[in-house]
Design brief:
This protein has helices spanning about 40-70, 70-85. The N and C termini lie far apart (about 90 Å). With about 90 residues, it is mainly α. Helix content is about 55%, strand content about 0%.
């Protein structure tokens, strides 16, 4: 006698894990981009620090002008900018 499909054991599916390729020698150059040297990394870090300082100085100057002149200087700047555009 043959069993019906409802009573059959489910099939086992075996999965095979494929090995990952090793990273090629040469670092980022072999992966499509140039590897950063210590000097370039230092230059990039210096540029980020410099841009951060500029942002802090501009924010401080805006805060100082706001405290000294109030809203008037910012309103005048917006009006002058809009007048230039139109």
């Amino acid at each position: 006698m043959r069993m019906s499909r409802h009573h059959e054991q489910p099939r086992r599916i075996e999965m095979q894990v494929l090995p990952q390729p090793a990273a090629p020698p040469g670092g980022a150059e072999a992966n499509g981009g140039p590897a950063a040297t210590d000097g370039e990394a230092r230059l990039n870090r210096g540029a980020l620090v410099g841009m951060g300082l500029v942002a802090v100085l501009l924010t401080g100057a805006a805060g100082f002008l706001w405290m000294r002149h109030g809203v008037a200087i910012f309103f005048d700047t917006v009006v002058a900018g809009l007048a230039t555009c139109f």
